Structures are given as structure tokens and as C-alpha cells.
């Protein structure tokens, strides 16, 4: 699982520079039961660590989802002896249907990739180095305590950038398009099929995984998920809104699909994620484009855009490689 992530990030790492030397990246698992992952940058090596608790929750969740034939029926049916699982169920045993078990692995792997790509953005886009420069403390250490040097607005803007980077990378790595790097934004020529399926099924997969990860984080969030005050991560309603919205935005800007088709494909995944969550938790999360959420999220994004313009010059000097999101667009 981690080897796949490392292989996918290898082209970026190979172009990355740290302290005038080639970038080195390690990815590992730590024995912590929280649903979390973190990025750490040392003098020579950059590190991404994902908690075993996060991986176990994701495995548990998708075993539950794929034990119900009503969820993702396009991935086949369960064995007639399969008992539908819920959040209280024991999910240590594989599903009785090999196809459904393998399909759950695809969703598990994609979810872990999304978390790792988010943490990689904190390193590659200069976030971790910037935090160290202004505070004198590593990203994870300063994140766990109060800091006058890094404001809540700063934190949320960096998290917003990391979420956008993660969605972009997840789309590139799953769709495997032919990329034209001579244009801005880069253009993608989509292939008809790859090992994960056709474009429709892949976008549906990505959309569902991105939203489900944020549904889990919202369920574990001790703060109000529609209040941005006094918190380092953006409120989950806003994260769901802009992370989901980044899917049709990228497809519109980079492919021939256009906004309407991209939004239709992403929405199919969102609806499946909401239905699946409702079946195993008996409570339905709201759609990320829920009307009452739009103005709240849009107002926050306008704040992040303004803050990004201020952070951009420093981050652009500290990034490992590639191009940061334009401060003008």
C-alpha cells in the first residue's frame, strides 16, 4: 500500500530539491490509533507517517460498505451467506465474495493515497519549511500547540492548498491521462480505460473516496463542522465543498469533458458515498453542494485566496519543486 504511494510520488521526488540536494522521502506507519497522518521535514530526509488507526478505520469502513449488495452494485454481488456488516461488526475477516473484497481494497488503497498526497503537499509545496522558518519548530510539533507565529488563518490556508493538491494528484494517478505540460493549466488527454476502469467509474471512485474521507473526519471532529474560528483545519463542511468541487473544476479546466459532464460524474460518486454512509451508520450526511453550505464555504475560500497571495512569495522560494497554485487564479 505504501509502496504504491511512494512509486506514484517518485517522479515528483526525483525532481525535488532540499537544501540544494536531491529530495529524499520516506513513508511509514506509526502505532497510533487516531485517524490522522502527518508530515515532517528533517535536515536530510522528509517523512510522511500515517497512523495505523487511520488505516484500520478505512479498512473497517469499506468492509462494511461492500458487505451490502445495495452499495456499489456494479462491483458484483456478495456470497449468499454474507451477513451485512455495520460499524459495530467484526471486520477482521475478508468478505465471502472475492470480487467485493478486491473492490474494497481498491477503495481502501485510494483513500490512503488521498491522505498521503495531502501530507506530501505540506512538504513539496513548502508548508513545513515555512512553518519552521517563522516559528522555529517542526510542522507537527507546532501543530500540536498554540502558536502566535502561525495564525489559524495561515493553517487553514495551508490545509486548503494541501487538499487541492491531493485531489489533483488523485485524479492524475487514477485517470493516468497523457499530460501536456506546455500549457497552463496543464491539459489532459483521457484514455478510454485503464486497470481501474473507464473514466466514468474512476471519477466516481475518486469522488466517493474524497467525500468519505471527509465524512470520517467530520464524524471525529470535536469542533463544530460549520465554524471556522479557533481551528487549524478548515471546518469539514467547507473541506467537503471545495475538495468535491475540485474534481469537476480540474476536469473542466484540463479535459474536454467540461464542467457539466465532470460535475455529473463526480455527483454520481457523491450520491453513492452518501447512500453507503447512511446504510451503515443510519444517518445521512449532507451533499457538499447543499444550498446552505455554499455561501459559508465560498466566504471561507475567499479568505484563503487572499491569504494565499500573501503566503505565496515565501512558499514559492521554499517549495521542493513543481509549480504552486497561481496567486492570481
Please provide a brief summary of the model.
By secondary structure, the protein is mainly alpha-helical.
What does this 3D model show about the protein?
The chain is mainly alpha-helical. It has one domain. It is built from ten helices and nine strands. The chain has helices spanning 2-15, 52-66, 98-124, 127-135, 139-143, 152-175, 199-220, 236-254, 258-281, 291-318; strands at residues 17-18, 21-22, 25-30, 37-41, 46-51, 178-180, 187-189, 193-194, 197-198. Strand 1 (17-18) and strand 2 (21-22) form a beta hairpin. The longest helix has 28 residues, at 291-318. The protein is globular, with a radius of gyration of 19 Å. The model has no long low-confidence stretch (mean pLDDT 92).
Brief descriptors of the model:
329 residues; mainly alpha; 3-stranded mixed β-sheet
Summarize the topology:
Blueprint lengths: L1 H14 L1 E2 L2 E2 L2 E6 L6 E5 L4 E6 H15 L31 H27 L2 H9 L3 H5 L8 H24 L2 E3 L6 E3 L3 E2 L2 E2 H22 L15 H19 L3 H24 L9 H28 L11
Parallel strand pairs: 3-5
Antiparallel strand pairs: 1-2, 4-5, 6-7, 8-9
Helix pairs in contact: 1-3, 2-3, 3-6, 3-7, 6-7, 6-8, 6-10, 7-8, 7-9, 8-9, 8-10
Beta percentage is: 5-15%
Main structural class: mainly alpha
Number of domains: 1
Bulk shape = globular
Q: Count the E strands.
A: 9
